[in-house]
Write a structure and sequence with these properties.
Elements (H helix, E strand, L loop, with lengths): L1 E3 L5 E4 L22 H20 L6 H10 L7 H8 L3 H13 L3 E6 L2 E9 L1 H25 L1 H19 L1
Antiparallel strand pairs: 1-2, 3-4
Helix pairs in contact: 1-5, 2-3, 5-6
Amino acid sequence: MVTAGPDGGREAPLPPVRPDAGSGSPPAGNGLGSSLAYLLSRAERSVNRALAAALAAEDVSVEQWRILQALADGRGHSMGDLAEAALMPHPTLTKAVDRLVERAVVYRGADPADRRKVAVFLADRGSDLLGRLEAGIAEHHRAILASYGTARTGELMRELENLVRALEG
């Protein structure tokens, strides 16, 4: 399979998924297909590509959706907490939050726990936007379940959570 690069050009072909990848033992060899980091990145790219398509109708990026989801708990979040929750570096998060502020879907205000600090909050328009996105997100999730299987998807999600806990201590 040949992929398109970020500028629309063609990148090198991706190595095929190894048939022994599900055998319970790590694949032999030293190609990209034997790298856990590479396989996780490939899976993330595939999932996010379909997710981005589901979000496109409302002009929301995957990163912006993560921010909105993190704020959906109704509490204000510091930029540091939000960066961690949305899996974004601070400069990228700041730009994304600025764009969401311009759209009036989030706003900055005093942190209720410490009025000297600034927090980001979900505005009513942001809640409405999340509501409009729900159908597309649900369809995206159903498509994954249909192609990979409900039980396998659940197991994969549990195993990924276990991996994160093990690596982050």
